[in-house]
Structure formats: C-alpha cells, structure tokens
Specification:
Blueprint (H helix, E strand, L loop, with lengths): L26 H31 L6 H12 L8 H32 L4 H35 L21 H12 L1 H4 L3 H34 L1 E2 L5 E2 L7 H35 L1 E4 L2 E4 L2 H11 L2 H4 L3 H25 L4 H5 L1
C-alpha cells in the first residue's frame, strides 16, 4: 500500500483516497494533534457515558430522561462531568497506545495478507480486525485503572440520589487522585484492575468486529455509490465520469460506516460491558466488610434483576455514545492522519 495508490482507477472511476499507512505519518505530529483532537471529542461525549454507567449499575430500569433530571436536580451540570479530569488524563497515554498499535498492526498485517494472495477487501478486513484486537488490548493497560477510578466518581452522587443507585461503594472521593489513593490502600494494585479480564474480553472482540465491519461497510457503500453513478456497457464494464468525492462526501460515508459498525458491536458486547461496569463499581457486604463482587455474583444479580433484559440496561445511551463517538472518532482520525502525512519529498528521500 503506497501513496501512489491514492487514486482508485477501477471501472467505476470513483477516485477515493487510499489508506495512509504508518510509514507515511509524521509520528510527533500524529500523537500531538491526536491528543488535542480526541480530548475535545471525549469532553463532548462524556455526559452520555455518565448516563450509561449509572443505568448499568442501577438495580431497576430507569429512563435516560429521568436519570438526566435526577442528576441535574441533585448535582447540577457538574454531575455530568464527574471523573472527567481523571478520564482526560488517561485519554492521552491510552489513545497514544491505541493509535500506535492500530496503525502498526494494520500496516504489517495488511501487507502480509496482500502478499498471501487475499483480495483487497478481504485483506483490509483481516488487517482491520487484527489491528482492532491489538489496539484494544494495548489500551486496556491504561484504560482499566482509569475506568475504575472515573466510574467510581461518575456514580458518586449526593446522598439524596442513593435510592437511584444502590450498592455503590460507600467510600467518598474528593477527586481522582483521592480515589486512586483510597482504592490502592483498600484493595492494592488489583483494585485498580478490577474487571481487567472482562474488559479485554469485551473490548478486544468489540474492536475487532468494529474495525472489520467499518472497513467492509466503507467499501460496500463506495461500491454501491459507484454502481449507482456508472452505467454498464454491452461488455458489463461500468463507465463513470471520473467522479472525485469532496470532503463532505468522504465524511458522510465514513460517518455512516462508523454508525453501522457501532450498532453491530454494541448489540454483541452490551451484556459483557454491563458485567464489566458492575464489577468495577459495585461491592458486596460480608460480615460488615465491603468486598468486591465476583463475576459469578454479578451474573446472578443480573439474572435476579431481569435476566438478559437487565444486561441491556443503558443500551440506548451506549449505542448513541458508540455511534457518535465512532463517527466523530473516525472522521477525526482520518482527518488527523491526513494532517500528519509526510510530504512527498520526505517519503521519497
């Protein structure tokens, strides 16, 4: 995959920019701009993550509207940004690990699959799935402790809202640093990695499915768009007009592909995400001592509270969060890669 392949001269004659590989990127610009851009994305979507988290740990079904009013009434606007500082601090190293692993894996696996004789579409799907798997596993080394701390802060409402979220750890945290210190003191390093295993099981396959679905959807949409624009002659060859999509068309297709991939991923992994969130946030009481819930106890509680339906609490906010996050992420990510692309002189030297 080289920059000279930046135009697709297939029969449909729709000239779509090719993927930008790892070796084409200015790494310092890539990571610096990436940290700034994704911090802004995280800030915009954080309130939805708070809603999703509170719904998942609630023992009863509560609508998003009711939950939003409850947070606004008892905690104000800042209630939607509990734990945001901690989350933002973790975003920078986690995103760096994620993007680095994603691009390195996609580039190396993509080249290997093409050399093995796979078609371009199949090679792209395999490379994207492998990249999603490796990037999620790398990022979880940072994200799991950040998740544990930020989610504890997310569900820490005023006492007046305790009837909404039960079984939450009774320990009060002043800020992310205080939560980090208290969790480390109470449970040791393993307390910061509660749910690490289930996080890997949740996010690694989810990322693999998402990136594979995204790459396939992206190609299918452009393929369908090409067929609708071109006309076949008597030999079955599509004759197009050399159409070059503008930036708006590229963003629209990327956004639609991301939303489609998010829907598939959210439905498949929602039960695992609910279990993960509860493992990281809720405790049980044994002989007057609060202890972390086990995986089996968490599953049993969900079965008692409504079975599979209980596992899908917060699906609406999660799907909305994933779709908006994925759409903004992929458009921002593609924009970031083009901003960070080395000049032709640097590539040929």
């Amino acid at each position: 995959m080289s920059l000279s392949a930046a135009e697709d001269d297939s029969g449909s004659e729709i000239h779509i920019p090719a993927d930008i590989d790892w070796h084409m990127l200015d790494k310092s610009k890539f990571f610096f701009l990436g940290a700034a851009l994704f911090s802004g994305v995280s800030a915009a979507l954080y309130p939805i993550v708070v809603l999703k988290t509170r719904q998942q740990v609630s023992s009863t079904q509560i609508s998003c509207i009711k939950m939003s009013f409850s947070i606004m009434r008892y905690e104000g606007l800042r209630g939607f940004y509990r734990g945001f500082g901690t989350s933002l601090m973790g975003t920078i190293p986690a995103r760096a690990l994620y993007m680095g692993a994603l691009e390195v894996t996609k580039s190396s696996v993509g080249s290997a699959t093409v050399s093995l004789g796979f078609s371009d579409t199949t090679a792209t799907a395999i490379a994207s799935a492998a990249a999603g798997l490796s990037s999620a596993m790398a990022a979880q080394l940072v994200w799991t402790p950040i998740d544990v701390v930020s989610q504890r802060l997310m569900v820490q409402g005023y006492n007046s809202s305790k009837d909404v979220i039960s079984n939450v750890n009774s320990c009060r945290y002043r800020n992310g640093l205080d939560a980090f210190r208290k969790i480390l003191y109470a449970d040791g390093p393993k307390g910061l990695y509660r749910g690490f295993g289930i996080s890997i099981v949740t996010y690694a396959p989810s990322n693999a499915v998402w990136w594979a679905s995204y790459s396939v959807a992206n190609k299918l949409i452009w393929g369908g768009f090409g067929c609708s624009m071109g006309k076949k002659d008597e030999n079955g060859v599509v004759a197009g007009s050399g159409f070059r999509p503008d930036s708006k068309a590229l963003v629209a297709v990327q956004g639609l592909s991301a939303a489609m991939a998010s829907g598939v991923s959210a439905l498949i992994t929602m039960p695992l995400d609910t279990i993960k969130t509860r493992l990281q946030v809720l405790d049980r009481e044994e002989n007057g001592v609060r202890k972390p819930l086990t995986l089996l106890q968490t599953v049993r509680n969900l079965v008692k509270e409504g079975g599979l339906a209980a596992c899908y609490r917060g699906l609406g906010p999660r799907w909305a969060s994933m779709s908006m996050s994925a759409t903004t992420m992929i458009t921002t990510y593609e924009f970031l890669k083009r901003l960070s692309t080395k000049s032709q002189e640097s590539l040929t030297s």
